[in-house]
Amino acid sequence: MDRSNQIVQHGVPVSSLDAAHANEYFEQFVNASSVKNILGYYRGLIDSLHLRPNVFNLFYPKLRANLTSWRAKALLKKFDARASHKCYQKGKAAANTRVLVIGGGPCGMRTAIEAQLLGAKVVVVEKRDRYSRNNVLHLWPFVIEDLRMLGAKKFFGKFCAGAIDHISIRQLQCILLKVALLLGVEVHTEVSFETLIEPDANEKIGWRAQFKPANHPVSQYEFDVIIGADGKRNTLQGFSRKEFRGKLAIAITANFINKKTEAEARVEEISGVAFIFNQKFFKDLQEATRIDLENIVYYKDDTHYSL
Fold it and tell me: Quick one: how far is CA 294 from the chain centroid?
């Protein structure tokens, strides 16, 4: 092989052909819309560059040096700006810290991203192999800004365009998964957390965990920090839980597939209306439909979402 056509990254030669393949995989990765495709194109990308998920300072510079398309540069510029924040101490704030995140939902992935930027070695386990939650989330302004800084719009062009301030949970999960992977987070799907295994002082083994399948390689990993982000049925033992409930009410949530027809496009969104603020609207609605409501929300995304 012609040495003039090689890029050496930390002693590992990357040929110009490998770099070209990596950029092709990157484009497919950015456009992928399912967990299976996202992870598949990601594996192709990092295999082309002889990379494996690792701490931020060992993974990201190699990735950044070889992704040269205009789209990649625009996204990585966002990551560079984020990683330069003083709180991360150039990826050394959590150096030599091993973090396990249980659950690949929005909270789990966003936590994994933050820990990765701090310099920890982060592993995420998710028991599912797909994202199927089509409920639509209303996003607070500070959340929109946070996601913009992480390059959300580079992955999903419609992200909070104009007055839109919502996104489907599935789409949000895909965005955060892509960000986490490009920063070096190690993600395993179809892996269920079972229980913690306490340290063994005699064998000098730290905290580990038991998973299904039992023979998965992550079962041999040791962790300093374990974060339960698997919802209200959190599986971490030894923690008391308290659920806060407001006034009980009956709520109906409906999701219908958005077929993108002309008639559907004409329907206006309702960002959130309460009876007390627009009594005429609700009285007219009751007269037309015989449905008596106190509040209503209607968003359009991959589905028509109403609450």
Answer: 33
Note if the pTM is more than 0.90.
no
For 295, phi and psi rounded to 5 degrees? Answer: -145, 155
Phi and psi, residue 137, nearest 5°:
-100, 135
Write out pLDDT tens, residues 90-124: 999 999 999 999 999 999 999 999 999 999 999 99
Residue type, position 254, single letter: A
Q: Which residues contact 60 (CB under 8 A, 6 or more apart)?
A: 79, 83, 182, 183, 184
Distances (CA, A) of 197 to 138, 202, 212, 237, 253: 39, 14, 14, 11, 40
- List pLDDT tens digits, range 280-293: 888 888 888 888 88
Question: At CA 114, angle to CA 112 and CA 118, rounded to 5?
Answer: 115
